[in-house]
Amino acid sequence: MEKMQEERRPKLSGAADAGGGEDRLGALHDDILIRILLKSDDAATAARTSVLARRWRHLWALLPALYFFRPTDPRRIRSALAAHEAPVLQALAVIAQGDSPGSAGAWLPIAARRLSGTLVFRVLRRSIAIAKKRAALKLPCFENATKIVLRLGFLRLALPPCGVFTRIHLLMLMEVRLRGPCGLGEAVSSPRCPSLRRLVVKDAHGLGDLTIHSECLQKLELFRLPDLQSLTVVAPALQLLKLDHCFVLCSRQPVANISAPHLMWLAWMDNYDQNSVQLGEMAYLQSLVTQHFIMYGEDYHSSHNRNGVCLLRHFEHLHRLVLTLQCPKDIANKKYFMEQITRLPDIKLLELGITACGHSFGASLFHVMRMCTAIRALVLGLNVTLEDEEETVCPSDCICDQPPSWKTKELVLNRLEVIEIYGFRGTEHEINAVKQICSWATVLRRMTVKFHDSITENKAEVLCELLVTFSRLGLDMVFIYRMQ
């Protein structure tokens, strides 16, 4: 009977007049059934479908992807990989409990031999203290994997001392403590990762010196590396470099040597010292993102700002500059530091983020805008801190509006055609700033205002009517607000 069913299956899969008593689902082709099982997004669920019919018993083993999105006994993962029969394993995703990471050694070597696609492995963190006591997880060499994403809950990770990751083009390491004789730079450089195009390292401890020599790397993103002391990158194909709170987490002087002649996008949101950081020639650089600049502060903030100013001076011409200004909530007896910025690169697009904490930012806005009168587009982000959720009213003698001449001094932005404003709440300071921008931009064609999510529909309508009064003939104003 089973033999007859197998012989009839191809015909039944296309039969339009099958009776209600026939197994239409079982008559489907294996490829279609496998697609159905993939929809479960869980290997255990797919395996349990064997109760439906004898023919389904081994279908799960033909799945091109195995997902273990619930904390799973690693022995079951090992068994599943050992029983897997698909010609190619395209993806493997595993979530493990934070107290049993060492058991990953039971299945990782099998995965390294079988996988020809993406590995995603996440450890649910229970305690950093426990993670520190665990033995290092030894990562085998995945010769055929194309993507590896590890988020290990600050477990110790030992990279393989030998072998070539022949096909990998994306490597992401997050929440790890690097240990072992093999350094990260050695593992990801061209001899061992000849196809690597993107490297992301986030919240990694034990990374003191990072040296990368890669002919193929195009994107390098480093976030929060508290132990980093020096960074060397030689990557002729690199197009994007992002450094975010790596050197700033320690008191040591940043030491970096970057050779990336084709770099197009640089985000240096970190400490910068022109004497110890060598950026090399970047003739193709189009976009620069800098660390925040403090508008009012104490004397020790001056050196922080000075480093950022030195970075800005390193570049003459850019297409896009992202600059963030921050103002503390209490600025009484604080010094005004905006005058430290004396020059900006020649740019066409300025993205200016402002965290004003309820204070006026008009004078600082004017100071920046008068140094980039050739811009064609302005994106103004009005950031709100948790402390600033409720509007702060400045005292009458607050220094934030000084010098007041920014409201009367002439400023002509005769190339600025497009303005986008985000997080608009309609405070008096924000309204004054928008009014001045409209008067400065003599050829403005389009202004988009996206209101803060806290703004009700009624208040948004009132603000829209007010902002329209700043308009002139030919200006298209667009307002966006969330429906409450």
UniProtKB/TrEMBL annotation:
This is FBD domain-containing protein. Residues 1-10 have a biased composition (Basic and acidic residues). InterPro entries: F-box-like_dom_sf, FBL15-like. Residues 1-20 are annotated as: Disordered. It comes from Triticum aestivum.
